[in-house]
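Entry 14. Structure prediction run on the chain below.
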Amino acid sequence: MGTVIGAVRGSRQASLRYLAENAHRPPTTVQGWYFYNKTKNYRRMAAGLQEGGQNAVKLGVTALVWVGIEDGLERCGQPWAEAKELGAGVGTASVFAIVCKSSMQDTLDLSGPF
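Output returned:
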């Protein structure tokens, strides 16, 4: 799932970036348009594969953290086994907040910008 999402987003972003980089000099011949689109498509494929791989790794690590915390809580015994899904969700959110360097105030602020 992460691969598909990353590939679509990366491909679209690369296409827009290529368009922005070359907007000041559009091709004037049929051959020029052919090579313009050919180069753009190659860059889209390369960026889509790269972004897809990065998102797949991120999603895989997130799932691994979730399953690891859930399994660890299940192995701890009866009082913890009942709340293993809740603990896995809170633990994964905490790890994500630490990795993204969110402050504790931002994490606990439920009022938000809404």
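The chain has five helices and no strands.
Filed with the rest of this week's runs.
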